[in-house]
Specification:
The protein has 473 residues and is an alpha/beta fold. It contains 17 helices and 18 strands. The strands form four sheets. A seven-stranded mixed beta sheet has the order 10-13-14-9-8-15-16, sandwiched between helices. Strands 5-4-3-6-7-17 form a six-stranded mixed beta sheet, sandwiched between helices. A three-stranded antiparallel beta sheet has the order 1-2-18. α3 packs antiparallel against α6.
Length: 473
C-alpha cells in the first residue's frame, strides 16, 4: 500500500472519529468554522490575487467579483441564516397521526470529499466547503493541481484556520485522486467535465456514495432578429471572454439568422476592440490559458471554420486572442467539445424553431441564453429548451443570485448548490415522527383480527382526497 494511501486512510480515520464523536454537530462549532473561513479569506486576499494572476493571469477585477466576493457573500449568508436552516421543518399530518409530532431534520452526511476544478479555483473550492461546514460535515478538499499556485495556498494555509480534526486538504493529480477515491466517503462533490464525472460516479457507486456532479457542456446562445445588436455584442463578448473563456457557463456558440448575422459580427468585432484594444495581448483585462496542454487543445480549434476576428496566439505566454469563428461545420472539433477558451463560433439558423431543434438535438447544457426584445420569443425559448440554468438578454447573471440554485441537468451534471441549496445538498433530510407511548386504544383498528370496517376507518383517516373535479379532454 502506498504512503499516500496510508495518509488518506489516516486522515479519513481522524475525520470520521471526529464526526462520530459529534464535534461538528453544534451550531456554535459550525459558526466558528465559517468565521475562520472568512478570516482566511480576508487575511490572504493579497496572496490569492497573486496566485490567480500567476495561474490564469486573472485581472484583479475578475478575481474580486467572481472569486473572493462570491465566497464572502456565501459565508455571510450561511452565518446569517444557519439557525433557521438548522431548524426542524414541520410537516402536515393526516388524521391518523394528528396527535403526533412530524418533522424533517437536516443532518450531516458525515465525511465529505470536495474535488474542485482549476478555472475558478477559489470559488469552486470554497463555496461547496461553506455548504458542507454549515450542514455539519467533516470535509476533505482536493484543489486542482492544474492551478498550482492557488492549490498551494488552499492546501497549506487554509487548514491552519480550520479545525484539523474535522477538515483536511490533499494535493495531487490523477493518480492521487484515483487512490483517494478508493476510500469510502459519505458524499462526493465534484466539479469538472463529464468524462471525469463518469469516473467519479463509478468510484462512488462501489460504496453507494451519493454525489453531486457539476459538469460542463456546450452552452447555446440564440440571438433573435428583434434585439439591440450593440448591447447583445457587449454582453456576449464579456461573458465569452471573461477569464479567457475558461468558464463552464460561458456561451459556447451563437445561433442567429442570416438577417442579422452580418450586423452581429461587426458589432462583436467592434466590441472586442473596445474591450481589449488594438492588441488584446497587451490588455491588462484579458486572462491566459491555464497550461500548455490546455493551450494546445484550444489553439487547435482555431483551425475550424474561418477566423473573422482574432486568432493570434503566443504559446510562451499561453495567450489566445479573443476570436470569432464563422463557416464552422457541426462536425468540427470546436462544435464537438466544450471550448473552454476565448473562441466564439457563430452559426446561421433560419429562426427560433431551427435554433431550438439544433439545441435539443444535443446534450442538455449547463446554461442556455437567448437575446430578444420580444418577450414572447424569450418565453418560447425557455419553454422549449432544457438546461441547468437560463438567462435572457445577458450571460452568467443567473449565478450571481445566490437564492437561485446552480447545477446541471443530464449530461451537464446532477445536484445543485449556492446559498441554502448548498446546505441542503450536504444534508440528509431525515423523516421523523414522535408518537406517544400511550393512547393504545387508538391503534386497535390496525391490529388483527382485521375487518372491513377497520380498513374503511383507516383509509378514511389516512388517504388524501382529491379536491375539485378533473375534466379529461
Amino acid at each position: 500500500m502506498s504512503s499516500n494511501m496510508d495518509t488518506y486512510s489516516d486522515t479519513l480515520l481522524r475525520l470520521r472519529q471526529s464526526f462520530q464523536n459529534g464535534k461538528t454537530r453544534p451550531a456554535q462549532f459550525r459558526l466558528a468554522q465559517l468565521e475562520a473561513l472568512a478570516k482566511f479569506l480576508e487575511e490572504n486576499r493579497t496572496e490569492m490575487f497573486q496566485c490567480l494572476k500567476k495561474d490564469l493571469n486573472k485581472p484583479s477585477f475578475e478575481a474580486e467579483i467572481s472569486e473572493l466576493s462570491m465566497v464572502k457573500s456565501e459565508i455571510n449568508l450561511a452565518i446569517n441564516s444557519l439557525s433557521s436552516w438548522m431548524k426542524d421543518e414541520s410537516v402536515s399530518r393526516n388524521m391518523a397521526t394528528y396527535l403526533d409530532t412530524a418533522f424533517i431534520r437536516s443532518e450531516p452526511f458525515g465525511v465529505v470529499l470536495i474535488i474542485a476544478p482549476w478555472n475558478y479555483p477559489v470559488q469552486l473550492t470554497l463555496i461547496p466547503l461553506i455548504g458542507a461546514i454549515a450542514a455539519g460535515n467533516c470535509v476533505i478538499i482536493k484543489p486542482s493541481e492544474v492551478s498550482q499556485s492557488t492549490e498551494k495556498v488552499l492546501s497549506e494555509l487554509l487548514p491552519r484556520y480550520l479545525d484539523q480534526d474535522c477538515f483536511a486538504a490533499v494535493c495531487g493529480g490523477v493518480e492521487e485522486t484515483s487512490r483517494l477515491l478508493e476510500n469510502r466517503f459519505d458524499y462526493i462533490f465534484f466539479t469538472g467535465n463529464p468524462t471525469v464525472g463518469k469516473i467519479i460516479m463509478t468510484a462512488a457507486a462501489k460504496h453507494l456514495t451519493p454525489v453531486t456532479l457539476e459538469l460542463g457542456g456546450k452552452n447555446p446562445c440564440y440571438v433573435h432578429d428583434e434585439c439591440d445588436i450593440k448591447n447583445v455584442a457587449r454582453r456576449i463578448s464579456w461573458t465569452r471572454f471573461f477569464n479567457a473563456g475558461q468558464t463552464c457557463i460561458a456561451p459556447d456558440y451563437v445561433l442567429c439568422s442570416e438577417n442579422i448575422k452580418e450586423k452581429l459580427l461587426k458589432a462583436l468585432q467592434a466590441t472586442i476592440h473596445e474591450f481589449y484594444g488594438e492588441d488584446p495581448k497587451q490588455s491588462p483585462d484579458l486572462g491566459r490559458i491555464v497550461s500548455d496542454r490546455h493551450f494546445q487543445r484550444v489553439a487547435a480549434m482555431l483551425k475550424c471554420g474561418k477566423i473573422l476576428v482574432g486568432g493570434q496566439t503566443d504559446q510562451a505566454e499561453k495567450y489566445i486572442a479573443p476570436t470569432v469563428l464563422v463557416d464552422v461545420a457541426e462536425s468540427d472539433q470546436v462544435m464537438q467539445e466544450e471550448i473552454f477558451g476565448p473562441i466564439l463560433p457563430v452559426l446561421s439558423v433560419s429562426g427560433i424553431d431551427e435554433a431550438i431543434h439544433f439545441i435539443n438535438q444535443r446534450e442538455k447544457p449547463l446554461a442556455a441564453y437567448v437575446f430578444s426584445s420580444n418577450s414572447q420569443i424569450v418565453y418560447d425559448f425557455l419553454e422549449r429548451t432544457s438546461s441547468g440554468g437560463f438567462c435572457a438578454n445577458d450571460g452568467m447573471m443567473q449565478t450571481t443570485i445566490i437564492s437561485l440554485p446552480f447545477g446541471g441537468v443530464g449530461h451537464s451534471g446532477m445536484g445543485m448548490y449556492h446559498g441554502k441549496f448548498s446546505f441542503d445538498t450536504f444534508s440528509h433530510k431525515r423523516a421523523c415522527v414522535i408518537r406517544s407511548d400511550g393512547r393504545e386504544k387508538l391503534n386497535d383498528v390496525r391490529y388483527p383480527p382485521y375487518s372491513d370496517s377497520h380498513l374503511n376507518f383507516i383509509l378514511s383517516m389516512t388517504e388524501v382526497k382529491k379536491k375539485g373535479s378533473c375534466v379529461l379532454l
